[in-house]
Write a structure and sequence with these properties.
It contains 16 helices and 20 strands. With about 450 residues, the chain is of the alpha/beta class.
């Protein structure tokens, strides 16, 4: 960790606990800050609050007291999930108090260079791919952010011969000041979290934080196939590394049906890649570009492309049983993600889909249902999804009572060479605590066949 004196004696309010607030409070206290933690949850049963109080950190639970900012705080570090419409945050901005998320702390204290990865889709897969490439090449990577350990905890322990691979959300990127990754990756841009950001423009501007502080000494890897990201790249001062799926390009990294190219020169054959789908090819190009910039040897990169079959719950290959391949894409909580999953396969597919009914349309899936031979519908949307599927001309449609029933039913409608794909297109909360629990239920059911 850097020798940081700027926080010594500074009055800091940590707003919201969970993992990031808990880690930030610990770090700031170790740096000599005078820390107060304010969490909306009641103190009873709040394990994080109890632990901090035992260590002598002041904790205020059960809401935000009126006038809390009158105590002379110079900085607020807020949980990323707390919106900027929160009264304390609004008041802080009006008073000119800096409001950060903990990735800004990470940058301030870390001796190691940071690779920051953001995007509407694919950032977890890209982060994981890159981590494995760097690890095999013995670059001593540390994984941080949404996918791993809270980033400021990683930053505290990192040495200058490490590389921090940090997955950053739009929520986190709104709370930065000087955060500057050595390499920034922006995988793609689609509307998301508009209830938090207020508009498509607000969401995109938050994502653009990944490169806004970069200089001519840094690199910005971006999706050249999206005009919006080409426009944001023009605003970046960093060295630009575009990636494209639409044939060989002279600059950056690109792909056609046969090869991946680096600056227009064939680099690796696509035939070795195990991870299916065009959307995953985007992730592969972005991760490979960053690995090359970090000095990874080609064999380390190829090793990952040959062996990597997906992040858990994100187009994860589960098992092959009597010629049928099972894929777990439980993270697909919207039609955009399911559309990408369906496009990844040319083989006949049995689709398991459905979940929490938010009333959204499934029409976006219609052009991608051509290879679907049967559908097993789940959850609150089962009947509505069944009606949509039948309107697509698919006659083999069944409603399952639970995941085990769904997996057994799906298998009965397949033959060797078929794909069985869980890609729900809906959130999980009607039957499961989260998409991970839903995916685990699918895996357990597959393994029990």
């Amino acid at each position: 960790m850097k020798d940081v004196n700027q926080f010594k004696g500074m009055k800091v309010l940590v707003l919201g606990l969970a993992k990031s607030g808990y880690a930030a409070a610990h770090l700031l206290r170790s740096l000599g800050a005078v820390v107060t933690v304010n969490d909306a949850k009641p103190e009873e049963g709040n394990a994080e609050a109890a632990s901090l109080k035992e260590e002598g950190i002041r904790v205020i639970c059960g809401g935000h007291p009126e006038g809390i900012l009158d105590e002379g705080y110079k900085l607020i570090v807020k949980n990323p999930g707390i919106p900027y419409s929160n009264p304390v945050v609004v008041d802080a901005v009006q008073k000119g108090i800096s409001v950060w998320t903990e990735i800004e702390l990470t940058y301030r204290i870390s001796e190691a260079p940071i690779i920051g990865i953001t995007g509407s889709n694919g950032k977890t897969t890209t982060t994981t791919l890159l981590y494995h490439m760097l690890n095999i090449a013995k670059k001593q990577p540390l994984i941080a952010g949404n996918i791993g350990t809270v980033s400021c905890t990683v930053g505290e322990k990192a040495k200058n011969d490490n590389i921090i691979v940090l997955e950053a959300s739009s929520f986190q990127l709104m709370g930065i000041d000087s955060f500057r990754p050595r390499i920034a990756i922006w995988t793609n841009l689609y509307d998301s979290h508009l209830d938090y950001h207020g508009s498509s423009e607000g969401y995109a501007e938050a994502k653009a934080g990944i490169t806004k502080n970069q200089t001519v000494d840094d690199y910005f890897i971006y999706n050249f196939d999206q005009p919006e990201l080409r426009a944001y790249a023009e605003r970046s001062a960093a060295i630009k590394i575009p990636f494209s799926l639409f044939g060989r390009t002279e600059k950056g990294i690109s792909a056609d049906d046969e090869q991946i190219y680096w600056d227009g020169v064939p680099y690796v054959s696509r035939s070795i890649i195990k991870l299916p789908g065009q959307h995953n090819l985007e992730n592969i190009l972005a991760a490979t570009a960053a690995a090359i910039l970090c000095g990874c040897d080609k064999s380390s990169i190829e090793n990952v492309l040959i062996s990597f079959t997906g992040v858990r719950h994100r187009m994860q290959f589960v098992k092959e049983l009597k010629g049928r391949k099972f894929y777990n894409d439980s993270k697909a909580t919207n039609t955009l993600a399911t559309k990408s999953a369906l496009a990844a396969f040319s083989m006949p597919t049995v689709l398991l889909a459905g979940g929490l009914d938010r009333g959204h349309s499934f029409e976006e899936l219609r052009p991608h249902m051509g290879n679907v031979k049967a559908v097993i519908a789940l959850g609150e949307t089962a009947e509505r999804f069944s009606e949509f599927v039948k309107s697509c001309g698919i006659t083999e449609v069944f409603c399952a009572t639970d995941m085990r029933d769904a997996v057994r039913e799906s298998y009965s409608h397949t033959e060797p060479g078929d794909i069985i794909l869980l890609s729900p297109s809906c959130a999980s909360w009607d039957q499961y605590t989260n998409f991970e629990a839903r995916g685990d239920a699918f895996i357990d059911s597959v393994m029990s066949l």
